[in-house]
Hints:
The chain is mainly alpha-helical. It has helices at 14-32, 85-90, 95-111, 129-138, 148-153, 156-169, 180-196; strands at 3-4, 38-39, 48-50, 56-58, 65-66. It has one domain: Transferase(Phosphotransferase) domain 1 (Transferase(Phosphotransferase), domain 1). The protein contains seven helices and five strands, in the order βαββββαααααα. The chain has a three-stranded antiparallel β-sheet with strand order 1-3-4. A two-stranded antiparallel sheet has the order 2-5.
Amino acid sequence: MAQQHRLLKGPNISTPLRTASEVVGALAYLHSAILIPIYYRDIKSNNILLDEKHITKVSDFGRSIEADKTRTTTLVIGTFGYLDPEYFQSSQFTDKSDVYSFGVVLVELLTRKNPISSSESEEDSHLNLAKRFVTLLDENRVDSILDRQLLDESMEEEIMAVAKLAQRCLDSNGKNRPTMKEVAIELENVKRAANGSTVCRAPFFAMGK
């Protein structure tokens, strides 16, 4: 029986990266590999499960919808902290709305923070996790929000590759976001690089500092 998966579990990026790669692979299939695409509409870490064989599952398809029916629905559905701002404003869900939500999951992977938790800093208290992350990445201060253990145990190339992918997923303009299939391909490449590296490299804080 599947249990809720701790997406953020693991001292380095390899385990959560594998989980995220499996999740986005399933979502890419729903978006592009079936006759009538299906949009999930409530992507969040709480809906990611792990069975007894450590196979990742995506649960709770109760809010999913076929792509050709999205224009007949104006009710905004989803979870705050993960909602695409464009969807929230227009009530029109697209494939890129799912991409935005998955981008938030990637930010959770890197920060191990709740997307709707209060900020440690009064200065940033008005921003949700995704907005804070993008702002700090733009200002070259993203290391201030990344999880310290992840930084100590992982390599700069993998962390920054996932960070920049998350930033693209969170673009305020949905048209500029990658497709879910593109996200899946890019994340798979990052995962392979992380698992296949045999060269000893310095941890994140020791590089370029």
